[in-house]
Amino acid sequence: MQKWQIELYSTPSWLLQTLLMVAAASAVILFFARNTRFGREFSYILRLCLTPKSTVKVLLLITAMITLLLTEVRLNVLSTFMSKGLYDSMQDLNASAFWMFAAMNAGVVLIRAFNNVVNDFLDQGLAIKWSERLNGVLTTRWLADKNYYRLQMRRHAPDNIDQRIQQDAQDFIASTIEFVRGMVNSVVTSLEFAVVLWGLAGILTVFGFDIPRGIVWFVFIFVILATFIAMWIGNPLIHYNYENEKLNGDYRYSLIRVRDHAESVAFYSGEKHEHDQLSDRFKAIIRNRWRIARQSVCLSGFNDMFTNGIKLFPIILQAPRLFAGQIKIGDIQQTVQAFARLQNALSFFRMFYNKFTAYRARLERLYGFLLSTEEKHTARQPDLTEVSDGLILENVALYRHNGEVLLDGININLKSGDSLLIRGPSGCGKTSLLRALAGLWPFGSSGKVSHPPHQDILFLPQRPYTAQGSLRDAICYPDIDKQHPELIEAMNTCRLGYLVDKLDKPDDWQHKLSPGELQRVAFVRALLSQPKVILLDEATAALDEPTEAMLYRALKQKLPDSIIISIGHRSTLDQFHDGSTHVGNIDCN
């Protein structure tokens, strides 16, 4: 049998053997890579995305993808033998052999096209499933244990978490699939075409020395040397790409701030200030992009020079053997193809290095965010006891982030139905005390606290939050029954009856409603959820005094057993509380 027949008939056994070798090599690489920084970060994210149920499905999908990838490599090898036969038949003027090899080349092209379509579909399927799982992990971690709140209070908190969850995760998945496919293809192609080129190579004479199979050694030495040079040139890009992600996230956040606070900016006529800030942030992006551009040009310039400069070498090195009658034109053609395939395979990491620097930055950003969500809340906490009703604070103290005392000696004892008004200069810690009662104070506290479970405590801030969706969704946030029988009655009580016909209309209600309307929405929530403790932080500051009085009376009448703790400055609030205290016994400065 001829060589092309041997290669063709041995394809099934080759696929099976190579698949097993790839599996074994992957296991060895993962075993040793786990002790590297890159390996630890990658395996950490991978473990989070795999469950016992999904692991088998993922392994089957990856096996199918690698099998198709190996099929593509094998088709490339067979293609070189078909091309050799095609050119040899033309040189020998053998028409029947020419048409046979032409038909086989066409068959290889069709099979390769079908193989690529299926492989591309599996790639996208894996990316979609992985994206679904990773997004679930990231959002769950972010929302768990109030991390979305605690992280922004830390001094070294991860920046632009929204960007990490949405953009970095998607880019990381796409780059991982591209990188793994490229690495497997590179290794297998290198081995296969090294064997093909080895069979075609002769003796290479360099400075009087004869080197057997010299063309094979030539391509390996030159490509490996070029790879190290490319890594040296491109190494600064890892830091530059990390900075690029951060700076773009900061710029996008500034744009969103202007959009979300458009009315305030307009009232202040703060366009010039906002423009200057946006300009400064964008200039930082441009400066970093110039650094990336300069380094990338050097890297791509070197890669292009090397890739194009090495193309003629296989012809030059094999030409003397052709002129000596040792090989045919088909052998030259096969040498050129095998040399090009081998050179491209060995150059994969060198060509991918620019993308790899950005990939490395995304991996670090995702790993850093996930790691931050695992950090335990180590700040000192008071002794907490959950009770069915009542609220007691015994000698409670709150501390700043640097350990200094913010509030000290707080003693409060309230029974069901009691109400307390807290007053004090701005910045003395009134809101901080409410945060501590809600379990949100991140910097440490001490003393003894007894209160009902957190789900029975409702916090009404000065500017309430509304969820996306319909007005019904906004009012019933977070878990009030959307078909609550007293919903419309509560809206009428809080003077929002004119919005009843818009309950199921989707809109941006956070911006559609006025500050006063938002505060009345918060009171509707209080009436519907019937909490045991209500914490009001200047919750009527945007309302006129008659409306304020009406809302407090509604709370007193409809929720007679609820404990009410209010922060406010108006003297009109006194009549709705059993007593008041002044947070002013410390130096507020």
TrEMBL record:
<dbReference type="GO" id="GO:0016887">
    <property type="term" value="F:ATP hydrolysis activity"/>
</dbReference>
<dbReference type="InterPro" id="IPR050835">
    <property type="entry name" value="ABC_transporter_sub-D"/>
</dbReference>
<dbReference type="Pfam" id="PF00005">
    <property type="entry name" value="ABC_tran"/>
</dbReference>
<keyword id="KW-0472">Membrane</keyword>
<dbReference type="Pfam" id="PF06472">
    <property type="entry name" value="ABC_membrane_2"/>
</dbReference>
<keyword id="KW-1003">Cell membrane</keyword>
<dbReference type="GO" id="GO:0005524">
    <property type="term" value="F:ATP binding"/>
</dbReference>
<feature type="domain" description="ABC transmembrane type-1">
    <location>
        <begin position="75"/>
        <end position="358"/>
    </location>
</feature>
<dbReference type="InterPro" id="IPR017871">
    <property type="entry name" value="ABC_transporter-like_CS"/>
</dbReference>
<protein>
    <submittedName>
        <fullName>ABC transporter, ATP-binding protein</fullName>
    </submittedName>
</protein>
<dbReference type="GO" id="GO:0005886">
    <property type="term" value="C:plasma membrane"/>
</dbReference>
<keyword id="KW-0813">Transport</keyword>
<dbReference type="InterPro" id="IPR011527">
    <property type="entry name" value="ABC1_TM_dom"/>
</dbReference>
<dbReference type="InterPro" id="IPR003593">
    <property type="entry name" value="AAA+_ATPase"/>
</dbReference>
<feature type="domain" description="ABC transporter">
    <location>
        <begin position="391"/>
        <end position="586"/>
    </location>
</feature>
<dbReference type="GO" id="GO:0140359">
    <property type="term" value="F:ABC-type transporter activity"/>
</dbReference>
<dbReference type="InterPro" id="IPR027417">
    <property type="entry name" value="P-loop_NTPase"/>
</dbReference>
<keyword id="KW-1133">Transmembrane helix</keyword>
<dbReference type="InterPro" id="IPR003439">
    <property type="entry name" value="ABC_transporter-like_ATP-bd"/>
</dbReference>
<dbReference type="InterPro" id="IPR036640">
    <property type="entry name" value="ABC1_TM_sf"/>
</dbReference>
<keyword id="KW-0547">Nucleotide-binding</keyword>
<keyword id="KW-0812">Transmembrane</keyword>
<keyword id="KW-0067">ATP-binding</keyword>
